[in-house]
Amino acid sequence: MPPIVTAEEVLKAFANIRMAPASGGRAVHKPLLILFWLGRLERGEPRMAAFADVEGQFKQLLAEFGSANSPNTRHYPFWYLGNDDEGRIWQLESAGGIALSTQGAVPGLTWFRERGVLAGFAPAVDGRLRADKLLRAALARQLLAQNFPETLHSDIATQTGLDIDQPAMGGAALSGRRRDPAFRERVLRAYEYRCCVCGFDLRIGNVSAGLEAAHIQWFTADGPDVETNGMAMCALHHKIFDLGAFTVEPVNLSIVFSQNLQLGDATRAHLLSYHGAGIIGPQSTAYAPDQHFLDWHAKEVFKAPGRD
Length: 308
Ligand SMILES: [Zn+2]
Hints:
The chain has twelve helices and ten strands. Helix content is 38%, strand content 10%. It has a four-stranded antiparallel β-sheet with strand order 1-4-2-3. A two-stranded antiparallel ribbon has the order 5-6. The protein has two domains: 7-160, no CATH class; 183-300, no CATH class.
């Protein structure tokens, strides 16, 4: 196959990367690794880097934006990305600079460390992205839009050192599912315009302020725009719900906070006072959160285990 040359080809190649496992699990490893690597280009770092030198930083990203288990499989995307687009996107090399095949099952963590495995974008992709700041920003926005809720975009960009506030590039818009513009309004109405955790219901004039419709199963992970997949939350609770700081039990709709939180006295008194309490439910049981979506959140987003 000819190498990737134009900006449009780069965006298309990354849009076609195999992301989600068939199980319906959340795919964060590959997009986070690519975003992490774009940040390296942003800082002018070399094309190839030793797995052992970068795994710590990447593990940290997975701990923050993945599920509780994500950091344990941090080596997976280094391997599997090598198979996308017939090897034109990503490469592995031995310590001696010999290209490594990424066919077959992923080896263990120690293999990557002991063999001194190096990883990086393929030369044509690296060159194209390195030379074009707008293209880097466009690719970062594309990956964020495809894989993460909007609440997390600026956090991920900051953590990876990316500048996503660049003018948009021309070219084909991504096709894909469209968000239902009425979702927010339907969910807020179902919850009578208040946060289902803390009851926050500020209005400025006649308009709700700081109140949002949270998807339980992320839209980017095929969560539908229906009331039973939504909960009204204030901006704070929405943000930390998407980060997995708490989840909602399917059986009794009670709020469970994660054990993986560090908080001072003021935050503890404020936040944990809702631990174990039921959500402020919707006005009709027809809008109650669906167990299937809550199970997804508990498995894919929540930073298990929960507090007693
Ligand atoms: Zn709230």
